[in-house]
Predict the structure.
Amino acid sequence: MHLVICAKQIPDPETPPSAFKIDSNAVVPAAGISPVLSPFDAQAAEAALRLKESAGDTKVTVISMGKESAQAAIKQVLAMGADEGVLLNDDAFEGGDSYTTAKVLAAAIRKLGDVDAVFCGRQAADWDMGQVGLGIAEDLGWPCAIVAKDVQLDGSALVVQRVLTDGFETVKEPLPAVVTVSNELGDPRYPKLQQIMQAAKKTVTTWGTGDLGLDASGVGAAGSKLKLVGLAQPQSGGAVQIIEGETPEEQAQGLVQALRDARII
Amino acid sequence: MAQNVLVIGEMVGGALAPTSKELLGAASRIAEGGTVAIALLGTGAQASAAEAFTFGATQALTSGDATYDVFRSDQWLPAAEAAIAQASATVVLIAQSMVGRDLGPRLAFRNGSSAAMDCSRLEMVGGKLQVTRPAYGGNALATYEFASALAVITVRAKTQEALDATAGATGATSELPGPGEARTDVVSREASASEGLQIQDAPIVVSGGRGLGDPEGFRLVEALAAAFGSERAAVGSSRAACDLGWYPPSQQVGLTGKVVSPDLYVAVGISGASQHMAGCSGAKAIVAINKDREANIFKSAKFGIVGDYKLVLPALIEALKQAR
Ligand SMILES: Cc1cc2nc3c(=O)[nH]c(=O)nc-3n(C[C@H](O)[C@H](O)[C@H](O)COP(=O)(O)OP(=O)(O)OC[C@H]3O[C@@H](n4cnc5c(N)ncnc54)[C@H](O)[C@@H]3O)c2cc1C
Ligand SMILES: Nc1ncnc2c1ncn2[C@@H]1O[C@H](COP(=O)(O)O)[C@@H](O)[C@H]1O
């Protein structure tokens, strides 16, 4: 089997709000905070690697569309246990929306040729869109199960346990197929030092528009239909009133009084 | 410019979902003279259509086929596409539900564009539709315009106001095709919803986080909710607490959990990460109980108690009982 993991490098989503800055409709990278592999993509990698272990004789390729720096995200997934890495790097890819991103990733998956299943995160933790996995599936004409917490192989189908708003659902989708993975899958594995060193030595293939047979006018900013026209920081609320007191009882009574005075209770 | 807006409706127990009423309200505000249509699939579609007319729909496209009762995107998608064609829609609105998360992107991609997901504001600015959505876990608000012929938008619950019902309002109804084959088979379903009052509907939500230290801490949080009144207060949790297995994922509040907008939100042992606040920032008032005065939650709270919840909660439960 051949499994693909789509991994995106993003600004650290744990960046404290105080260090989060916007300038001219773009996020200013916070000083001293390195970009990271998007957390759900680490979980997507974990799901694919668990499947590799249970199915045996499986190749896992990690793909990232991004700049040269995205090599770090690819290397992290290689260190977790993926076999090969592909970086999709071309100036023409920049400034794209989910549609053009999915188009580029789908073209790379087509070029790989023999892919059985694609694992994406449920959403990239920068723009929080949650649509590229579905876009890849639509482009390839494959089924897609979103927000997975467990993925098993059953013959030529994936059995996927999905998280719903109020419960869970188990679905069976025939291969080839796409899955998007959620945090309920559990923590991703932590690579060992030796794996990190081996991954560092692996070469990552780079493809651009030419390699993928894509026209520059249909990708990146040129091909995007969803246009960002503004990016702002939400206003924070007013000042908090800290309820003081010598004892928890005094604090509690003070809070109840304050809530009553404000007619909240 | 007039927009023909299509709402992909949802039903709860055969009745029109509250989010669908919110979407009809938003659709009426941005249509600017265009039509407001609603697509309804599954048992109760006819009755829900009648209700939708009273909440602003001018056209309903329905199929009452019970196969649609379980959402399978392979089956809903052709029906939604047929509805777009029948309604000559230029804008499609879907709730940011499990239906919207799945159908929104697919409908957009089939029309050569991306969807705008989880939007909290929709407005016509100089004849152009602009939508705003939280990004970067709620640290930013991103505003978009569409360069595509069709704008597909999923909308966050509780961000749009429904119209007041106009009794007796009617509209045109037409049939949507019945379901075809689905590639993906639903093997089983398991409900994990808590009984009784749901956190989305409760006027008071008391949530616990990792700061509770152990799952037992939730017994105190539940006792606090009960002290506010079990008919008014429900219990939520942070993702960290859900990930630790202390509370079911159905109770998670936040960006990837549920959106709540109660009159009062009490956060106990929750640090106030932007992704958590994304689910509760619509609360009229937030009370934070946290032992760390520097915790981010105090930046969004109206009232705060700095202290150990193990001491504060029993005292608060007692004070509420006395105040009754
Ligand atoms: C893409 C993405 C999506 C996410 N979606 C969500 C989401 O939907 N919902 C969500 O909640 N999170 C979400 N998160 C996670 C979020 O970033 C935080 O990690 C999470 O909310 C932290 O949970 P917490 O506040 O319970 O834990 P912590 O951040 O660990 O905070 C615990 C708090 O408890 C306090 N405390 C400790 N002991 C006590 C005590 N005895 N008494 C009182 N206070 C005490 C501490 O001071 C601390 O402030 C998401 C993250 C990402 C990247
Ligand atoms: N530039 C990218 N490179 C590789 N994978 C991506 C990229 N953008 C998105 N993805 C994948 O698609 C998922 C959903 O992304 P999004 O729709 O942007 O929220 C991510 O979790 C990744 O698995």
In short: DSSP finds nine helices and 18 strands in chain B. The longest strand of chain B covers residues 128-135.
